[in-house]
Design a protein that fits this description.
Pfam families: Rieske. The protein has one helix at residues 10-29; strands spanning 52-55, 63-67, 70-76, 79-84, 96-98, 101-103, 110-111, 117-119, 131-134, 137-140. With 141 residues, it is of the alpha+beta class. The longest helix has 20 residues, at 10-29. 18% of the residues are buried.
């Protein structure tokens, strides 16, 4: 057989067809379950009212509430602090604010109402998220 001659046998066809089917299957799986990202929310217009995270009356002095990916605390009367709800140890979402600490259920990290680490394994504070009071509401700043 010369280099320009080509010969197919049954085994070559079967193996080639199997490889092609496997490649098609893998290709189809790479996008399974992925959705198009949601369009970004429009930026608020200057002077427009911001969406409230919580009412000031709902955040107890010496405590806090978890709203989505934000923890809002009130360490002292009239002082509101916004923090990320993502634990700095392993990325779990904190679950409760109780007895003056923000508590992560995954590995037991506890944070103060200002986000500082009270007990590990986390060794970095919760990230600050700016908030402000508008009327009787706490909004993202």
């Amino acid at each position: 057989m010369t280099i320009n001659e080509f010969s197919l046998n049954r085994r070559t066809v079967v193996v080639g067809a199997g490889a092609l089917a496997a490649a098609a299957t893998l290709s189809a799986c790479t996008t399974y379950g992925k959705e198009d990202p949601a369009p970004a929310a429009p930026a608020p217009q200057p002077g427009a009212a911001a969406e409230a995270l919580a009412k000031t009356a709902d955040v107890p002095v010496g405590g806090g509430v978890i709203v989505g990916d934000t923890v809002v605390t009130q360490p002292t009367a009239g002082t509101f602090v916004g923090l990320s709800a993502t634990c700095t140890h392993a990325g779990c979402k904190v679950a409760t604010v109780a007895k003056g600490t923000i508590n992560c259920p995954c590995h037991g990290s506890r944070f103060g109402l200002d986000g500082a680490v009270q007990s590990g394994p986390a060794n970095k504070p919760l990230a600050a998220k700016p908030v402000r009071v508008e009327g009787d509401s706490i909004v993202a700043a």
